Amino acid sequence: MLGLDPVTFGYLQTTFGALQLLGTPVFGRFADQRGARAAFTISSLASSALYLLLAASCSPALPGVALLFASRLPSALMHTMPTAQMVITDLSTPEERPTALSRLGLCFGVGTILGSLLGGTLSAACGIQCPAIIAFVANLLGAALSFTCMPASTKAASAHGQAAPLGGPKASLFDLKAITRLLLRPGVLRVFLVKLISGFPSGLFMVMFSIICMDFFGLQPAQSGYLLSFFGLLLMITQGLVIGQLNKHLTEEALLQASVLVFCVVGLAMALMSSVLHFCLLMPGLIFSLCTLNVVTDSILTKAVPASDTGTMLGLCASVQPLTRTLGPTLAGLLYRRFGTPVFGHVQFAVNFLVFLVLWRQPLAQKKDRVQ
Questions:
Q1: Are residues 356 and 245 in contact, defined by beta-carbon separation less than 8 angstroms?
Q2: Cα–Cα distance, 277 to 111 (Å, whole number)
Q3: pLDDT digits over 4-59, tens only?
């Protein structure tokens, strides 16, 4: 509608990724210091601002491209998922945490399916601005509910650590030394690097997924939507049922090794696939690895830091995805143009095979309880 060329669209995606990358750790620290109520309210208000600007960019009477880029600015404060993960972490025991975090992901799967279907229906029936306006109103409602119903802080409810009182003195939100110091705690940096390195190849594939659907699979937009709905359904099943059951019988280290090993197998299959049917067959393994990697590493990392810093730690974890979104388009585009779709499978197998060897030879030394 706005006539963006691929280069300008790439700039838009990079802007969004960079703002999220810079905002997640700082916003996580804000959630630790100011509490869940303030974090949820501000995140919902930022989402409302984004969708309002997005709706305005569709108006012929307004400078659409400028407003479209301006709509990316509030994304620096849009971090509802890490905030929800912080609340779950504060209210769950270490043993329950992987299951609790996976159930939170179930909500994301529901949103992926219902949002895609509702957005497409509303766009066709009422115009392209309608989904953005509905999202604007929904996020305003979310901000009101957060402000009126959410407890000021969930840190006091944690039985494993105490946070400073909300009215007490606060360190600077932008104290980068305090943020990066968490990565230097025993066992943290290694798990964080596993999360980053193991998931990066699949992130490259997902960056190019829409182009692969059109060029490699030959799918129409509607068919790509059905594929995304299948993706959301698998996400719901994996996070709502599979991970919780596996967590009852396996340690977090075993689950982490399993996710990396399945990544290797999926990478080999991806290098050999030639049709969308092949991709549908390997998608359950891909979803299992992605979900398990994220849930288990988030759980391990939040146990390795004090209760007062779980929001900051989850903010650092959440920065992995926007990092891929920022660096991925250029690298993925170059690989795809030169080597084609199979290269993503080769890279995924090679990287995760090396990660698996490291995990196998040097097992993680996990602590049973959260650091005091």
A1: no
A2: 25
A3: 665 676 677 778 888 888 888 888 888 888 888 999 999 999 999 999 998 898 88
**How far apart are alpha carbons 153 and 18 in whole angstroms?**
29
> Torsion-angle region of residue 35: left (phi > 0), alpha (psi -120 to 50) or beta?
left
Tokens 């802007």 — which residue? 15
Taking the C-alpha atoms of residue 351 and residue 163, their distance in angstroms, rounded to an integer, is 39
What does the angle CA 201 – CA 206 – CA 208 come to, to the nearest 5 degrees? 105
Q: What angle do CA 329, 330, 332 make, to 5 degrees?
A: 65
Measured from the Cβ of residue 283, the count of other Cβ atoms closer than 10 Å reads 15
Q: Are 260 and 292 in contact (CB under 8 A)?
A: no
Check: pTM over 0.85? Answer yes or no: no
Whether the Cβ atoms of residue 82 and residue 317 lie closer than 8 Å to each other: yes
**Nearest CA-CA partner of 18 in 344, 351, 330, 337:** 330
